[in-house]
Amino acid sequence: MEQYFTKNPSTDAKIYKYDWNIGQDRFYFNTSNSVFSKNGLDFGSMLLIETVINENKNFNGNILDMGCGYGPIGVILANLIKQSKITMADVNERALELCAMNAKENNVENKIKIINSSAYENINDNYDMIVTNPPIRAGKEVVFSFYDGAYEHLNIGGKLYVVIQKKQGAGSTKEKLISLFGNCEVVEKKSGYFIFRSEK
Q: Which of 81, 100, 101, 134 has its CA 20 to 30 A from that of 27?
């Protein structure tokens, strides 16, 4: 079975669609097989989105959605954090095709840049915020590379937001982030999921 972090999925693409409401706003997403959470927005991503929006209502800057999948986090943030510019990066080429479709579907394509990148391999810019729901199934080494790269690519004062389940390594993630940033706050916790925030 192909994993969602496969670069070039070989299975035939089957397009699925769903819509999602956040308050009065409705979003529409195209998904497919061989991408993460194809049937709807997963709980961790939803909690991450809500937390980032609640903490950054007046945010004005550049955001990187690392490991973006088909783009729900980046698309929603682009819509609801009005002064933001979003870069979405993923290794999965099928997911990135869906990102482009979803940015257009939700009328934020002018605010979004899409990059094919294995972790930070093709990331050249620095950002004011990085958000990630890391690919746990890719293994600890890959997940930790997301954190290392985030520290390197954040501007001073920039923030990293991570969502991770307690049973999937929240403890080791917190230790890693403290070792990198010197700080790591638990800013939300619900149903076994933790949202960590570190500031450079």
A: 134
Mean pLDDT of 147-153: 98
61 is a domain residue: yes
> How far is residue 171's CA from residue 84's CA, in Å, rounded to a whole number?
31
Q: Is 161 exposed, middle or buried (0-12, 13-18, 19+ CB in 10 A)?
A: buried
**Mean pLDDT value of segment 101-116:** 96
Average pLDDT, the chain: 89
pTM: 0.90
Residue numbers of the domain that contains 122: 15-199
Distances (CA, A) of 150 to 17, 77, 80, 134, 170: 31, 18, 23, 12, 17
Q: Compute the distance between CA of residue 124 and CA of residue 182 in angstroms, rounded to an integer.
A: 24
Domain assignment of residue 8, yes or no? no
Cβ–Cβ < 8 Å for 18, 29: yes
Q: How confident is the model at residue 24 (pLDDT cuts 50, 70, 90)?
A: confident
Instruction: List the Cα angle 120/27/191 in 5-degree steps.
Output: 70
Find the CATH number of the domain harbouring 54.
Answer: 3.40.50.150
pLDDT for residue 34: 65
Question: What domain count does the chain have?
Answer: 1
**Is residue 32 domain-resident?**
yes
Cα separation, 68 vs 92, whole angstroms: 9
Which one has a higher pLDDT value, 22 or 176?
Answer: 176
